[in-house]
Amino acid sequence: MIEIAEEDATRPALIEHVSIAFVVERVMEVSRANDGAIALIEREIAVPYQKDCDAIPGNLPSQWAQQFDLRNRGLMTARANGQLVGTVLVAFDTAGPDMLDGRDDLAVIWDIRVAPEHRARGIGTRLMR
Questions:
Q1: Could you report the per-residue pLDDT of 13-46, keeping only the tens digit for each?
Q2: Other beta carbons within 10 Å of 128
């Protein structure tokens, strides 16, 4: 049983308990047809690699408050038997980084993660709903 709940987004260190690391095996490439239509084409890459945004210096969720105003954030969590297994953090009506074009009617997914052993079970979809 997965329980979805809203949490205090001003405490992002909670998020660090769920790994964001994943292995990149495929990429999506943008393709433009002669008529101007845009399509995404999935392609396998020759040498898979691990991507881990938390490994970038200064990028741990517990360090975000030193760089960003976290007041206009929404945090949803997923728990299985009380254990944190997924999170999504959404930023809205906020200045910098300039992802919202200064608009207050947009939101951006700032961070989404599902524990590796719980991936491909629909938890990310439930968090987004």
A1: 889 989 999 999 999 999 988 888 999 999 999 9
A2: 11
C-beta neighbour count of 121 within 10 angstroms: 15
Could you tell me the pTM of the whole model?
A: 0.80
118's enclosing H/E stretch is none
Select from 20, 37, 38, 18 the least CA-distant residue to 28.
38
Q: Is the pLDDT of residue 2 over 90?
A: yes
* Helix count and strand count (H, E) for the chain: 1, 6
- C-alpha closest to that of 90 among 26, 9, 1: 9
Q: CA nearest 33: which of 43, 41, 25, 21?
A: 41
116, amino acid identity: P
Residue 14 CB partners (closer than 8 Å, separation 6+):
7, 61, 75, 77, 84, 87
Match 């524990």 to its residue by tokens.
115
Q: With 0-12 CB in 10 A as exposed, 13-18 as middle and 19+ as buried, what is 86? A: buried
